[in-house]
Amino acid sequence: MKLRYFLSLVVMLTTTFASAQTNYADSLAIYKYKLDSLQQVNAALGKAQAPNAHYYRLFAPTTFYHSAANKLLRLNGNMSGQDAAADEVDMALYNIYMNRPDLVMNSQTRLQEGGALRDDLDKPVRNDINFVEAIAPELVEADTVPVVVDVKKPNFWSYKGDYFLQFLQNYVSSNWYKGGESNYSMVGSATIEANYNNKQKVKWENKLEMKLGFMTSKSDSLHEFKSTEDLLRLTSKLGLQASKKWYYTLQMIAYTQFARGYKSNDPVLYSDFMSPFNLNVSLGMDYAVEAFDKKLKGSVHLAPIAYNYRYVGRRALGTRYGLKEGNRSMHEIGSQFTVDLEWKFSDNINWKTRLYGFTSYKRAELEWENTFTFKLSKYISTNLFIYPRFDDGATRLDDHGYWQLQEYFSLGFSYSF
Is 398 exposed, middle or buried (0-12, 13-18, 19+ CB in 10 A)? Predict the structure, then answer.
């Protein structure tokens, strides 16, 4: 029983395989005839043809079309129609009908029963090509939002200023048990800075300092006003960066005063505008100071080479300022240093100091200016100014030697930007 079932299964598989092999061979034969037919059509036309709508009949399922038989069975025996490609396709199909009728799977009559065929298949298919000039595509502008671009030219200049005007009034009655006299005083100061820094290697700093103070007292019968503070000074430094904090620097300091200088009840003139005038030019290096969370800032200038020029407009004052009698000017070569610092202890307390020294190796000059500012409000402040000075080129006094000292304390208006 099992043997019979096995033999039946083998026979069934063999029959199925043979049928599939036959169908595959028939399919290959159909496509071979179709390719041969297309080759036959192209050979009959004599040249390579562009794709034609009639070629589809060679590759669609093999169908018996009436056009092939109608053209062959005409009484005049002429198969030519209006389209050479259609005639050759019909001839190729006719060869298949005659040689392999078993490959014909369908007929035009059956296709028409299923749906109408296109009536224009027998008409020549022509492609009418019109050549026109190339037209540039029309640009479609995208929706854009207007954007204003503001390009600012870099500004390497910075400006700042410091101003104050302060007064002091002291009244003493004629019968005051300790004595004394009444007096009034005023001092004004303006400091303006214009600095250039291109954030690369070049730095140019300019500072103009102007300070003028007057006082009046009843005991002075010769002068209604006398100057107590008088300074006009310009400092300019041009630096080329050598490292992070060091600069090769050329420095110029020029200073004189505004008004005449007198002593109480003394008719002698001690100083005047351009008497004296000092010009100091030095070449050295600057060190940028920045410490205590940027609360202490400034610079230290060290110059091994310095030239100092002193001029006295009033010839009679020459000897008082180290010039030879009868001369108006003096030239000196030596060394110089300048320390210029500002320390902001708090929002209300500030200290500015300037230490200047010059030596010609024959004489020495040292100045140390200190200004302590105590802000009481945005526009009200008090100033304490202490200014010791040493100059061994001046006349020596027994009680002070070559040392000189100036000091004042004032209250009044101040403004900074």
Answer: exposed
